[in-house]
Known about the structure:
The structure holds two protein chains of two kinds. Chain A is mostly beta strands.
Amino acid sequence: MKGTLPATAVACAMAWGGSAFAAQSLEEMKDLPPAAKLMGEQHTIAKLPAPHPKRVFVLEPLFPAIVASKIWVIEGDKQELGAVMSAGYCANMALAPDQSEIYVFDTYWDKGFRGRRSDFITTYDSQDLTIKSDTDLPKGRFLVVPKKQNADASPDGKWLFSYNLAPATTVSVIDAKTKKYAGEVEIAGCGLIFPGRGNRFSSVCSDGTLATAQWDDKFKSTVTRQGPFFDSENDPVFEHAGFDRRQGKVHFITYDGNVIPVDIAQDKPAIGTKWSLLGAEDAKEEWRPGGWQLAAVHRATQRLFVLMHKGPKWTHKQAGEEVWVFDLNSRKRVQRIELKEHATTIAVSQDADPYLFTQTEKPSLITYNVQDGKEVGEMSFGITPFLMFVGDE
Amino acid sequence: MFRALEVVDKLFERLSRRTAQQVSRRNFLASFGAALVGASVLPVLPVARKAQAAEDPGMAWAKRVGAQTTDPKACNYWRYCSSDGYLCSCCGGGPATCPPGSSPSPTSWVGSCLNPDDGKLYLIAYRDCCGKDACPQCNCLGTAGEMPAYRPQLNNDIIWCFGGSSMIYHCSSAAIVGQV
């Protein structure tokens, strides 16, 4: 062995402390072979490029090890993995409207899968992914397979929201600037958070009504109800809608393929007229919307993208075979994108040459160019990815 | 229709009472129902919708998947028409037995599935077994009569470990709690 440098010796030296190792001079490294020449390469820490429209965050509740979640940061333009973030049990996330921060809504136990539970929001810098702060959620969090509208940031960057069911249904409101918990807004019998303008959000209620909560500077809240605007018995709206959050427009989609637009940017939300995704022929062929995060809006062109499959009622979580694209102004279908692999979740970049990101059942991320419906690439990662987030949505 | 609703009401009441006796948060389920749907509105379970629907969702599922009554480790076992997640039957437990080291949630949502042997609909309590990390075996997804989580009593995405000692999901069980 004399005259060689065992790999284990190097590994041990590194494990005993980087600074000590770095401070060692060539002369101090007694065991080196006479011919060895140290190169002294220094480690650097990568930083994500500035936020851009084709970056997609894939949130994965890691079901086989359910106390863990991962967030995969994908550079969609290059079809490369940019970074992976760690999170805990049934985590959720949101992006700051200016994309400077990433908010992870999280739950841990101090002994792994047991012990004292803590719920909090961790704020990350969106480029170096360092932790800027933790904010406790004193009322806990709703623990569920993640759905986007159980946690969100307001489009003006003022508030963060986290839904609770414990068992009262409330929303924890956090000041997004100071990262201080502001209080709880009760929305009895309702769920989901669609942030409106100012101190306001709207929720969907079990009786088919829309609840809109608002609060004053002293955090005194009021909730008003409208509707019912859908039939919660026979044709409920999916929890994921086509949500144009910048303009405050929610395009709710029902199990039977109806769309109900609701403008939540106004003081009193305006419930629009219902229309159908399905023509007579489509209905005969049993097309219906389905999957998980099944819809997306491209704001600039006002296009609605919806995952569609053929199947009877109560197949509402079945993966989509195609993505149908609708012009929201004319309410006409303008494109059908046949998917190479069936998908459960979609997202659309908000730039002028948008990409359609599809999370497949395999799982894999298959990206299509919306313009021609052609595949841009396929990436395989993760085990049970569920949600996708793009900047500026 | 009336009979079905009656069954559901009684069942819900009984589950509430049992929960009140068994869990530390004594009034959990009672307040659960009230908080979710308002004190004056009773939860509407799949059986209540049956009269309005063209075909019962549980019956339609049984037909579509060829439901069977002999293999509880298969996704088409008749009780799993609305089950979501890893089967306790594949993890050292059974359809109504939690694997060693885990415990059943005192709360659940209730669906209705068709037993193809006798052609009758049964009320199934989809209780999660809780207290350990997930047992990643036999992942099945049934969605007969399943509703979004703003109607929590009919949703299978929720971690149904409320009221127990742990909120950590281990596997999905499906106990028979009544007959329609």
